Known about the structure:
Radius of gyration: 13 Å
Low-confidence stretches: none
Strand order of the largest sheet: 1-2
Amino acid sequence: MKLDSEPIGMTTSDSVIPCFRTGIGMALMGASVANSNTEISIEICGRQFPAVIVKKPIYRKQEE
């Protein structure tokens, strides 16, 4: 994971979520960079992909 081309952490788990039509993951990083809505990049198989840091839970069921 990188912020402004600098390494900031390591992905610990990831998956593709069909209902979101996207991938999600969890990572270890320093508290100083773990701010919500921060745009970062993630390297997967040598390619960079955009990502955004969000707080858990990433999904809340809508109340009816």
